[in-house]
Amino acid sequence: MKKKPSSIVLFHLYLLLGIVLLGICSSCVSITGLTDGYDKLSSINKERVCYLRDSGGPGARSTGTIYLVSANELKKIIEQSDKQHQIVYEYNPNCPSDVCVPISTFVSLCKKYDAEPIILARYLDNALFDLSVGDIPFYGIDHSIYKPRAVYKYVPLYMTDLTGSEMKDDGSGNLFVFEKGSIKKRTDVNGIGSWLESASLDR
Question: Is residue 176 within 8 Å of 74, Cβ to Cβ?
């Protein structure tokens, strides 16, 4: 009677198989969205990324450029807006969800409700450089003050610093509504309209 392989042996065989398959997949598929994405940019696009503090400050606007901005710098941009409401779109490149609307749709939504559109990319991606709308600046998260490069770790730290409230990376909303610089609501494209209409009636 043949002896069955032990569970420990089977575990190591499956583990080895998993490592081999992961190596094969990673050699032919580029996985994005795990880290800040800078290393995956083309050499041309790397030159189109700059820190806001090195480019003339909040007034800097150049089509095709992504400005890396700290939470404190973005706070100042929000506070200096002349609009009643400012909406930060935490943009997730390559997101398949219906709440991850195109940049142009977000900008149109802001114009409808006379809100200031602020686009903030969670991570860098080559496709971002073709998405600029008019003269609206495109921002990326400057995570240099946070140790982790993993997106799921630095994004909640950044958004917590930006809003002053603990924020979790749990998919509960990618639109952050500010009113005269103060955070009022975290929502998504399905809930933003009714909230803004209600806020307008309350004024």
Answer: no
Closest CA to 92 of 163, 171, 161, 203: 171
Q: Where are the beta strands (DSSP E) in the chain?
A: 49-51, 66-69, 85-91, 116-121, 138-141, 175-179, 182-187
* pLDDT one-digit tens code per residue, 162-196: 998 888 777 778 999 999 889 999 999 888 888 88
Q: Which of 143, 130, 178, 145 is nearest to 35 (CA)?
A: 143
Domain spans, the chain: 38-202
In the chain, alpha helices (H): 7-28, 43-46, 71-79, 103-112, 151-163, 192-202
Residue 113 exposure: Cα atoms within 13 Å on the Cβ side: 25
* pTM, entire model: 0.79
CATH classification (class only), 38-202: alpha beta
Tokens 């795990």 sit at which residue?
A: 34
Question: Which backbone phi and psi does 145 adopt, to 5 degrees?
Answer: -85, -10
Using pLDDT thresholds of 50, 70 and 90, give the confidence band for residue 27. Answer: very low
